[in-house]
Structure formats: C-alpha cells, structure tokens
Design brief:
Length: 212
C-alpha cells in the first residue's frame, strides 16, 4: 500500500500531533550489536553501532532495514533482524520481532508534515557512486599483489617490480586506463574501460599507463 502524506502547515487542529511526534514511533530494542548506516543496506556508510539492549524509536522500515532514532549516538538505518518491538519505551516490557510500520513526523523550513502508511518506506537517495580509480594485479583473475591509482594519475615509466608484471586490471566508477608496452606511452597501446581478468597480448608487457 502506498504511503499517504498530509501537510499540516498552519492547521491549528493538528498542532497537537506535531507536539507529540514521539508517539508516532514504535519503541524497540536492539537484540544484538549491529552497525548503524546512512541508508537501508550494507552498501551505505557506517555511522555508529547499536549495542545489545539499547532502546530506540523505530521511525520507518524498508524491506529488511529500519530507521531508528537513538537517545544517544547517531540516528540511522539498521538491519531489522537485530530489532524487536517493545510494549513501552526504555527497552522494557514484552517484545516481538515484527516491526510492521511506516510513518513519521518531519519539521522543516516549509513547516511540519505527517506521513503514515503500511508497507515499505519511500526509497532513500542512492549511495554515492564509487570513486573513479584503476587497480592493477600481478596475476590474472585479480589475484596476487595489487595497487590502485585514482583516475588522472599517469606513469610514464613503471618502476620496481611492477614493470612488465601486470596481468589483470579492474576499473571503478567509470575510470579508464591506456596501457603501453614501452615507456612514455610508446610501443603498442590499448585502452581498458572494463574489468580485464586476463590481458592477453599485454600480459606482463605493460611499462607505462595513463588513467582518466
């Protein structure tokens, strides 16, 4: 079922709802130590940790993740598997592993708003895109020793044990790399824009590279 929203604005009849916004959260308790993240998934940044037995107010849930309001520490999203609803605040009373709600009250520059519903919460912003970079491996299939450089880094003459020793390349965040068999980007060159577990002709022949 989709979420319904009511903009309160200056409606005097609903001011009491805003003044008691805490009542629109379900009290819960952490059943184990669990990371607190900026979004509903392990791909989001960690901003803290809930400790076993810590009492929280659960504001909304999306899939297997719930947003919790903490009395101490940073608010954020935690795995629903580590939460239990309680019959009252402070983590006391009987508990249940089911947290089937989705509502909250938000007060912003444009005034307060109240939202409620049953089902999944609206999706949060997507996680930030990965930083463009290129990683090089000694062996094929991205194994053995490795090093990574940010997009925009150039090496006209690979020094040390990496000269003529690169066997696989992985790119991140839309980065690309041009590899050459001779120093100063000479000899035979090729541009890599996707992950290459095996470099074929360029296996163990790369002496210079340019990333972008």
């Amino acid at each position: 079922m989709s979420v319904k929203r009511i903009t309160l604005g200056t409606a005097v009849a609903l001011v009491s709802i805003i003044s008691t916004s805490a009542a629109w959260a379900v009290p819960g308790v952490a059943t184990g130590n669990v990371n607190v993240r900026t979004g509903p998934g392990t791909g989001y940044a960690k901003v803290g940790t809930l400790s076993t037995g810590e009492a929280v107010d659960v504001k909304q849930c999306q899939g297997n993740w719930c947003f919790v309001d903490r009395s101490g520490g940073t608010d954020g999203w935690v795995s629903k598997n580590y939460l239990a609803a309680t019959s009252g605040g402070g983590g006391g009373g009987s508990s249940s592993s089911d947290i089937p709600f989705n509502f909250g009250v938000t007060v912003g520059p444009g005034g307060p708003s109240f939202s409620f519903g049953i089902g999944d919460a609206p999706p949060p912003p997507p996680p930030p895109a990965p930083t463009p970079k290129v990683c090089f491996w000694k062996n094929s299939n991205f194994t053995g020793a490795q090093f990574c450089v940010a997009a925009g880094v150039n090496e006209p003459a690979i020094a040390g044990g990496w000269n003529n020793s690169i066997s696989s390349i992985r790119v991140y965040g839309g980065a690309q790399v041009t590899v050459c068999t001779n120093a100063w980007y000479a000899g035979s060159c090729a541009t890599v824009s996707t992950d290459r577990p095996n470099l074929g002709f360029y296996n163990n022949t790369i002496t210079s590279y340019q990333t972008f």
